[in-house]
Amino acid sequence: MIEESALNNAESLIQSGTKKLSSISNVPRLEAEVLLSYLLDITPIKFHTDNICINQKVMDKFKSMIDSRSEGIPMAYLIGKKEFWSMDFIINESVLVPRPETELLIENAIEIFKNFESPKILELGTGSGIISIVLQKELSNPRITAVDISKEALRIAKMNAQKHKISEIQFISSDWFSEIMHEEFDLIISNPPYVDRSKLSKEELISIVMEPDIALYSENDGTSDLEFIIKKSPQYLKNGGWLILEHGYDQSSYCISEMKKAGYSKINNSKDIQNITRTIFGMFAYE
Ligand code: GLN
């Protein structure tokens, strides 16, 4: 029996959490509810239907989570998961938090490969594995190789594959193409690091400071990894194979011109919900 004095009302805790998060979040009440429901292992709806009391231990944990969140730690790292393509993925500090715009890459790949049986796919920089895992579910018997330079990221990606009951993806520790030997693919897909750290405002920097630098930043105005992948991919593509990349909000014309120079055709791109061009794709056909 928990003593009355050790109990606290969920609503008052949520309200104090909401107040603290309002300086850093657009949805402070929602975040406070999600954090408390995570600790209690209930759905946030319960706060609106039941009168829930909280014991001291949970209250202390909640307060420390609210502190961490108000210091800028992403929700996904605090609760260890994030939804992407309506699926739950395990996330920690060694991988990027999945962004909704990355769903565009998947949409592009589905559009191009929807009638294709067993495409051979290479994903560069798989991170938590979201792209490869969703493609394994959405395409017809794809043969996917997913690489990352980070061993810890690969560990998370494998856990996610297991969580979604996928055993077909080959996960390899590789610095881009370094461990890919004489193989040719129908599709190379990547959400590489492309952020130019020097261009970030203080607020932008704070919002991503907890995420791994290696997954975010690239030299030469953020373009150096994009350039490397665009130039190197033709060696690893079958005749008529495709390259699909995510890029930064101001890198569309750069990517188009690099892809033209590298000999790709059918170059096209797609925009995110804010109407910003976010992906580029093109086909590589031999002369
Ligand atoms: N879209 C992410 C951001 O702008 C960056 C992802 C990436 O570098 N691949 O914060």
Residues in helices, as a percent range:
40-55%
Class derived from helix and strand content: alpha/beta
User: Hey, roughly how much beta strand do the residues contain?
Assistant: 15-25%
Counting DSSP E segments of at least 2 residues, the number of strands comes to 11
Number of helices: 13
Provide the list of bound ligands, each named once.
Answer: glutamine
How many domains?
2
Q: What number is the mean pLDDT?
A: 95
Task: Round the Cα radius of gyration to an integer and report it.
Answer: 21 Å
Unreliable spans are 1-6
At the fold tier of CATH, the topology name of the largest domain is: Rossmann fold
| CATH-level-4 superfamily name of the largest domain | Vaccinia Virus protein VP39
Provide the spatial order of strands within the biggest beta sheet: 7-6-5-8-9-11-10
Return the CATH class of the largest domain: Alpha Beta
Shape: elongated
List keywords for this structure.
elongated; alpha/beta; 287 residues; Helicase, Ruva Protein, domain 3; 2 domains; two-stranded antiparallel ribbon; 40% helix; 13 helices; binds glutamine; Rossmann fold; 7-stranded mixed sheet; 21% strand
